[in-house]
Amino acid sequence: xxxxxxxxxxxxxxxxxxxxxxxxxxxxxxxxxxxxxxxxxxxxxxxxxxxxxxxxxxxxxxxxxxxxxxxxxxxxxxxxxxxxxxxxxxxxxxxxxxxxxxxxxxxxxxxxxxxxxxxxxxxxxxxxxxxxxxxxxxxxxxxxxxxxxxxxxxxxxxxxxxxxxxxxxxxxxxxxxxxxxxxxxxxxxxxxxxxxxxxxxxxxxxxxxxxxxxxxxxxxxxxxxxxxxxxxxxxxxxxxxxxxxxxxxxxxxxxxxxxxxxxxxxxxxxxxxxxxxxxxxxxxxxxxxxxxxxxxxxxxxxxxxxxxxxxxxxxxxxxxxxxxxxxxxxxxxxxxxxxxxxxxxxxxxxxxxxxxxxxxxxxxxxxxxxxxxxxxxxxxxxxxxxxxxxxxxxxxxxxxxxxxxxxxxxxxxxxxxxxxxxxxxxxxxxxxxxxxxxxxxxxxxxxxxxx
Length: 451
Hints:
This protein is mostly helical. 53% of the residues lie in helices and 1% in strands. InterPro entries: dGTPase (IPR006261), dGTPase-like (IPR050135), dNTPase_2 (IPR023023), HD/PDEase_dom (IPR003607), HD_domain (IPR006674), PHydrolase_assoc_dom (IPR026875).
């Protein structure tokens, strides 16, 4: 279905059940060209955005430009991951009746707020932003889509202001909602108030409240659920593929009990609930190892590369078809082709598929992210983020890009000025963060990259 050479099993009807409220924009604007749908316009805006292009310079798992012992891996960046996530999500969403452009827009947007240095950079920026509301990549994505990315300005008076105000890409309500993984503010998780995951900063509440108008509190829309599962599928499968290409994982170790236990320990509490029985994970891994297409060895040869590519295609299809069939069985048992959209249904992912996906994540985590040399790199990256924030705070507006300089100079208070500095750092790539740090601190070479 979602890998090469596969097909969807449920054709979708032609009608599209989205209404004018779904297609509304935070700031009203006229169509430039008749014939394009609102969601086609959304997709085009994200594809042409500088924010999406910047993801090319942000590490996914394996550092671009490195060479593994098996083969030059040309590893994924955040950009290529987002493109692959979008392909998976577009097909899965279409098979379930979603507007494919809407789901693709959400998938392309889901990592736009990702800062330099991966989740390590996210944690470091959260510490920097502790006195201005914290930092979370998903909340930053919403901020970027609705405020930071230069595309549209609303006239004076919009939102109560007295001057024209940036409304970012000015996407539709449905697109912004579909791109929101965590539809609550800090501390607002519906079942775990201590969760660090949230989707909106307090000063972005007006547009967030507009997006969420009339929908169940704390609940993600169907398209966002499709995006979230597509993200899990894409990165679990492709991170493993990159790890094998780079020579960080020898697939034969997955048959050895000590290494298998290490994988389960990584998965439990991080990728599956803390009370998960390790035997369930063992069964999940065994199911994957038993597949005829599973790559039991990898030597970088053309035949190995082709075999691994087939395995990634098979895995993506396996996970997506499982979700499609389970969701249809729950919400459209007669398989009539009912369109499942917005808040009319919930995506159903079988437990077996979630456990298999979690095992793949844990393998990449154990053998790539937990390599001994990565601890030092992560520590250096946190220093870069912290020192960069200190240097910008001392010198600002010097050192800020023109866009952020203007925002800093017009910010009404210290909290708002701090948020501008955080926005500036979050917009940087791995390399540009290191370069700016070196320039502002007079420490050439202090630009660690890596995980």
